[in-house]
Amino acid sequence: MPILLSVERAAASDAGLPPTSSAYNGRVTTVRDAEAHDVVAASGLSQTDVVLQGIKSMITSGQLAAGSRLPVEKDLALTLGVSRGSLREGVRALCIMGVLETRQGDGTYVTSLDSSLLLAPMGFMIDMQTAEHRRDLHGVRRILETEAAARAALHITDEQLREAEGILESMHPLVFADPVTDHETIIAHDVAFHHVIATGADNGALAALIDALADRTFVARRSIGEFHEEQVRRAYDEHSAILGALRHHDPDRARLLMSHHLLTVEDFIGEAQGSEQQALR
Fold first, then answer.
1. Fold of 122-279
2. CB 55 within 8 A of CB 90
3. Taking the domain 3-113, which CATH number applies?
4. What pTM was estimated for this model as a whole?
5. Alpha helix (H) ranges present in 43-182?
6. Bridge partners, 103 (sequence order)
7. Which of 22, 161, 198, 243 is the most exposed place for a label (fewest CB within 10 A)?
8. pLDDT tens digits, residue range 135-174?
9. What is the separation of C-alpha 191 from the centre of its chain, rounded to a whole number of angstroms?
C-alpha cells in the first residue's frame, strides 16, 4: 500500500471513515482519501511526523532496504504529501536517529540499520541524566553486562579471547604501579575489555546498549580509582577471573563473576553519591 494512503487510512479508520481502494499514481486520487488526509491534519500529526512515519513504513514494508537510495526530493515529497521543507526536516531527524545518511552529491540513503547506529541516540538520553541517577545507570549496566558475560562464555571466539588477554596484559604495569597515576588509560583499557565481552556475546543490540552506557559512565569509574587505589587492583583481579571463566566457556561462573564485579563498582558509586548529597544539606 502506498505510504501516504497507509498513514491516512489508519487515521481515517480511527475517525470511523471506511477504507478506500483506488489506483495510486504517487498521489491521493479519491474524495475519501482526501478526507483521510484532512483527518491526519486534524489529528495533529505534523508534516514532519508524516515523513518519519512514511519513511519508516517504506523500510518496514520492504520498499526501501538497508543501503537503498531514497527517491529524489521532489518525488518523495509528492509521494508523502508533504512540503519539501518538511521532508528535509524529517530526513534530518532520521539521520540523527541513524536511519538515514546523506552523502554529499549523491543523495540520501538508508543506513545499514545496524543496532549500533539505531541505538546510538540513546546516549543523548543518558547524557541528560543528572548526578543523582548515576547509580541507576550502573544498575542497568550491571544487568546487561552480567547476561552478556554469560552469553560470551558460549559464543566468544579465540580471537576475542586473545584480544581481552592482550588488554589485561597492557593494563598490568599501570595497575600495579606504586602509586597508580594513569587512571585515564586504565579506564580506557577497562572499557575496551568490557567491549570485547559485549561483542563476544554475539548480540548486536546488547553490545550497542552496553557501549552506550560504558562511554557515559567513564568519569564515575575513573573517580573510583583516583580515590580508592586498592579498588583498581581488585578490579584487575576480577577481570582476570572473568576472563578465566570465558576461556573455560562457563556461562554460570562468568555471570556470577561479572555480577560481583559490577556490584562492587555500583556500591562505590552509591557511597560517593550519598556523600555528595550529604554535603549539599
1. Four Helix Bundle (Hemerythrin (Met), subunit A) (1.20.120)
2. yes
3. 1.10.10.10
4. 0.69
5. 47-60, 73-80, 84-96, 115-118, 122-127, 134-155, 158-175
6. 107
7. 22
8. 788 889 999 999 999 999 999 999 999 999 999 999 999 9
9. 16
